[in-house]
Specification:
single chain, alpha/beta, Rossmann fold, seven-stranded mixed β-sheet, 14 helices, 27 strands, 32% helix, 27% strand, RNA-binding
Length: 507
Amino acid sequence: MSLEEQRALLQQEFPGLLEEERKKEERKTVQPLPGAVEGKVTLRFAPNPDFYIHLGNARPAILCDEYAKIYKGKMILRFEDTDPRTKTPLKEAYDAIREDLRWLDVKWHEEYVQSARLEIYYDVAREMLKRGCAYIDTCKEEGKRLLLQGKHCPTREREAEWQLEQFDKMVEGAFKEGEALLRIKTDPTHPNPSIRDWAALRIINVEKYPHPLVGSKYWVWPLYNFSVSVDDHLMGVTHVIRGREHEVNTEKQLYVYKCMGWDVPVFIHTGRLKLEGFILSKSKIRELLSKHKEEFLGPDDPRFGTIASLRRRGILPETIREVILSVGIKESDATISWVNLSSANRVLLDRRADRIMAVAEPREMVYEGECVDAEIPYHPDVPARKRKYRICRGDRILVDERDLGLGEFRLMGAANVKVEGDRLVFVSRELEHALRRKLQVIQWVPSEGAVRTKIYVPQGLELRRLHAVAERALREYGPGSPLQLIRFGFVRVERAGEAYELIFTHE
RNA sequence: GCCGCGGUAGUAUAGCCAGGCCCAGUAUGCGGGCCUUUCGAGCCCGUGACCCGGGUUCAAAUCCCGGCCGCGGCACCA
């Protein structure tokens, strides 16, 4: 059968299916990448491994990945860990970031760590000194002050030979932290003072601040703008997608490209991404974690906006991708509302999450009447998969306190009953009866085998803890399983065991 | 203060570069209905926006100017 024939048949037999497929394709579309040629695109995601990545960091990562896939291009993962002093890399973050990216289905073809490439930066620095595009500023604090006034440190005028000599001294450790600095010559009177002869390599006292990967081996460290320009060129990056906060940096980096005669990649700056009600900032999360260690469950606490947090909470990677792609590469900031995110997640989760009955305010009732075999499907779309409970006279059943006021209701999948004191009295078995009388269908839990559960409900910076009792079928699920507690919402199994711990995902 | 970037319904986004097809599309939310052994999903109907003021033009969400608001950067963070 040809593709067309299959489509025609599908259209005839299951018109809904094709419709759904079409819709999905539409959603996934991203705008074309400027200047992109199929097979000739190289992108990179360059996180600082000083902490776990969050939703905002995921934006460029996913966009790059998406474009790399669309244009059959190359994707590079580059760890930018060149500041052992103020942004000390976290050793565990390298792996955590890799794991998060894999979970997000971001594929990379090459991987680099900047702290292993210092010699490369030194080489380019020497070349730029040779070409007269850079100089060593030994004026210390005064150098900065001069530039602020549109002047500059006199060493700017010295010849290349002297500059190279000084640079070697820097590398060998002849200068202390702050005593010498390699600057890129731009324009000392540039209207934006931060662009005036910007700093490219500086000295860090690694005896005091050792780097977690290379220890105290290197004395001279490149700054962002320098290492990034060098790497983007050497790695053949054609398109740089990064946050808008880098706009000025782009202008600075152009000086390196110009001096070295390199081709300039396409720069795209995206706005900031916020997640309504969540903390995304790495530094804020670090602060909270160090100040209130006891109150949080770690970097992946479900109240944070880190990728690990969202995963733990039960947000699916497909949801994150969908939301980020729908925001696209706009320059304006975007605030993702939790309602929208959970709505997108719910659509995907609904198909995967089995339904489990649990009651939050359990009240034990005694069943009165003939024996009933209850058959409850794990998922309404797959009625054949089900578990069975038999209830007979004298059996104890837990129902939610709040449902008792209904007087008469249907125990889901079992029978229609009436409340009489602490007894549930059998009325009839037929569903039709319940439908006719518009009885509320409620979830219930047989006391025998019931599982105690603790449900964590994240709300802003609060983490409420609810207790509920679930039917024994819950025991069939291990950590990580997505579930829906009927009439309560979606949850993810956090811990299995004698008692269960669940994290509330969303309604 | 200086430099730069943005502003479409509650939220997000399409359209803006190449002005008319936009009394502005889509998703979500909200209101109503249908369906359904969940207050879940699905389906149908409705609700709701071009920051303000000028200008250019036969015609402006779209181009120009001014204002207002928001955001980013500010220099040995990335």
